[in-house]
Amino acid sequence: MNWEHLLALPTTVILLVAGALALVALLAALGSRQHWLARRRVRGSLSALLALAWLALALLSAGLGLSLRGYRRLASEEPVVAIDARILSPQRWALTLTWPDGSTRQVGLAGDAFRLEAIVLKWKLPTLLAGVSPLYRLDRLDGRYDDPQQEADAPRTVIDFRQAGAWDLLALRQHYPAWLPMVDTVYGSGAFLPLVDQGHYTVSLMRSGALVARPDEATAQRLDESLR
């Protein structure tokens, strides 16, 4: 990963800022110590207060950076995940999820269709004008039954993509809205498609925040045949 890509990651940038603020706080603390050793009490006290202020800003920046873990920049259309489906038994599926970086995950799903949901974060106008792209984080993948009665009564499958024990920007904004004045809105977006054996699907997120699922040509043909 080159520096251009590294600096495009919001978490990395914010944590670098937090590190810089922590360094400034350390320098202020060392200055305060020198003033106290030289018996310059007023300057020492002011330097100590500045050190605490810089430290508070560093901790706040670090918290914001950690809460952004799992979020990705949202371009005009961002590939989210590719899904390959294999039927095990009626309404039981084995899915292979492939992310843009090449990592994969195997999951089992119950239902007639898959439904993928994401959390999208949009910034207020000044931040957008500064060139900061919207962000998104995958939230969950679950099965969806065609029959509403089955949807209410049949076994459900939910795959959670959240990082266990990690801070999350959505929860941070809900509990401390004043801490994130640059955030315009945080909302959910979802898409679903029917499952067919040997089906291949791609899921993308538009810059508007809409999650879009598309079957490839062979999968679309199988879906058409299943509806006849």
Explained architecture:
β2 and β3 form a beta hairpin. The chain is built from seven helices and ten strands. It has two domains: 3-67; 75-227, no CATH class. It has helices spanning 3-7, 10-37, 41-67, 125-129, 148-153, 169-175, 217-227; strands at 72-73, 77-89, 92-98, 104-110, 113-123, 135-144, 158-160, 183-194, 200-206, 211-215. Helices cover 39% and strands 34% of the residues. The protein starts with a helix and ends with a helix. It is elongated, with a radius of gyration of 24 Å. The model is unreliable at 1-8 (pLDDT under 50). The longest helix is centred in the N-terminal third of the chain and has 28 residues, at 10-37. By secondary structure, it is an alpha+beta fold.
